[in-house]
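Table S2 (text version). Query chain:
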Amino acid sequence: MKVLKIATAGSVDDGKSTLIGRLLYDTKSLTTDKLEAIEKTSKQRGYDYLDFSLATDGLVAEREQGITIDVAHIYFSTATKSYIIADTPGHVEYTRNMVTGASTSQAAIILIDARKGVIEQTNRHFFINNLLRVKDVIVVINKMDLVDFSEEKYNAIKADFEELMSKRDYQDQHITFIPASALKGDNVVNKSENMPWYEGQTLLEHLEELDLEDIYNTGTPRFPVQYVIRPKTDEYHDFRGFAGKVYGGQLSVGDDVVALPSQTKSKIKDIYFYDKKYQTASRRSSVTITLEDEINVSRGDMLVKVGDLPTIDKQFTATISWMDSKKFAAGNKYLVQHGVNKVLAKVDTIHYKINPDYSGIDENIDGLGMNDIAKVTFKLNKPIFYDAFKDHRTNGSFIIIDTQSNNTVGAGFIQ
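Corresponding structure-token output:
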């Protein structure tokens, strides 16, 4: 079954957790004990309705405050798709969590409170989805029941968001607007009878019809080698295969390939998945590849098609999201984990800090604090094989690791 990963974003009390809870409830994805717990807690709090946010807010602090703090992953399925929803916090101080949730998503839901309209945090949420090249963005204008299901109010908010869209640098996004009431269930799974003026799809209908092939960010195939398989048994004495995952495009038997960094050429002989052979390895499939020639290939190397080489360099410029309380400054050294490879990197230049509310950039800064986003140049102790993030989401992204604590302290997207 196909799997669609979705990131949610919204300001405090816009109703993200309630929307997800409603999706789970109306698709009958809540277990009996979970539903009973929601009913019990809702009654204890004196509500005359079911508080669906209780279905997702897992931390004690989240339930007490009625807010989302950490990134929660929620799973549910329909007859046609499986879904993974990354429920990310909306607070400014949790920008890093929003980046984490959206970095691996193919679609995003941005919630807007119909009473408040487009606010600063809406700009931030859209900026992050634009930065991370999320192709399908659904703008859910929620709490329409609190503005009397007003078409005029909906159109005004839609116009404000369309003005925001004019500021983006990534134009290949598909933006869909849906007026909804997560609490009442209008236009989430079931069509609303309160908004006959809206002729579009419900949220679930839109998600069900998304073509995964269309919304995945594809590119030229990249095959980072995770492991070299040498069984050393009598039956497979001469077997030498390279295990990994195909990113970007597809690889087929007979393709002329180049092994990086040696740049030695060969041809794909066989493609295995367990004990079965296949003619083609599709994008995102984990396989073992054998080559016709006995060339030197090790863990951390990469197989690419002849004529489709990535950039091979000991420096790059990237947009980074800093996620640590320690200051990020020019001259600092970190480990950069790019795919399988982990290399020592020095911060060469911090060009400028980017204000993710589309208010511009800050130059002449001496460092970055937690949740800051900036354009930075790194110098590495050995070359890596990379693509620009806009062309290849997997081979154009990396994480930053503190050399002392070994904690992940940032994420980056190569320009």
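Notes on Table S2: The first helix runs from residue 16 to 26. The CA atoms of residues 9 and 110 lie 5 Å apart.
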